[in-house]
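User: Teach me something about this protein's shape.
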Amino acid sequence: MGLKDLFAAHASENEAAKATHTINVEGMHCPACEKLVSTALEDRGATNVVANHETGVVEYEGELEAALIGEAISEAGFTLL
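Assistant: First, the predicted structure itself:
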C-alpha cells in the first residue's frame, strides 16, 4: 500500500466516523433528559450529540452498534423507538 492509499484509507475512516445518524427516543421531557441521553451516547463513543426533548429526535456522529445504542438509551431511562 502506497502513501497515497494510506491517506485515502485514513480519510475514508474519518468520514465514516463523522457520518450523522438520527434516532428517535421516547420519554425525554426536558433539557435534563436531553443531557442524560447525550452523555449516555458520548460515553459509548458518539460525538456531536444533539438531543431534542420536544421532538424526541437525537442526532450524533460516529459508528455505534445498534445494541450499544439501545443499551445506552435504556440505561439512561428512556426507550429507543
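Now, about its shape. The beta strands are 20-26, 47-52, 57-61, 79-80. The first strand starts at residue 20 and ends at 26. If you'd like, I can walk through any region in more detail.
User: That's plenty for now, thanks!
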